[in-house]
Design goal:
single chain, 126 residues, mainly alpha, AhpD-like, 5 helices, 77% helix, globular
């Protein structure tokens, strides 16, 4: 799946709508996948943000733009900062080589896009 006009917000919204259709046609499969996700991301020895950083790194290394979008969105909501994401991207590129470097650019753009939605606004901006 390609990112329409480089907008991860639009892509994740469109995919979410498509997933709704699959929830109707294959409810057991989607329920099982969601249960797996909840179990995997449940805080334990690693907190949720660390697990989302790992997930985004895997999205970069496997060149999965939808994965990049959803995990960048989760990291923005969880309060990750740019330095954490950039440091993780360095590890993802190291592990995935040149193609991961190209997708690291996508991941950074996705995170920045979602971060703008979740940054606290000054009262004068409301």
């Amino acid at each position: 799946m390609t990112v329409p006009d480089g907008r991860y917000i639009d892509m994740t919204k469109g995919l979410s709508e498509g997933l709704s259709d699959l929830r109707v046609s294959t409810p057991e499969v989607l329920r099982a996948f969601n249960d797996l996700g909840h179990a995997a991301m449940k805080p334990g020895s690693l907190d949720r943000k660390t697990k989302e950083l790992i997930a985004l790194a895997i999205g970069v290394a496997t060149r999965c733009d939808p994965c990049i979008g959803f995990h960048a969105q989760a990291l923005a909501k969880l309060g990750a900062d740019q330095r954490e994401v950039d440091e993780m991207l360095g590890v993802a590129v190291y592990m995935g080589g040149g193609p991961s470097l190209m997708h690291a650019v996508h991941a950074r753009a996705a995170f920045e896009e979602f971060l703008q939605l979740h940054e606290p606004r000054h009262p004068s901006q409301l």
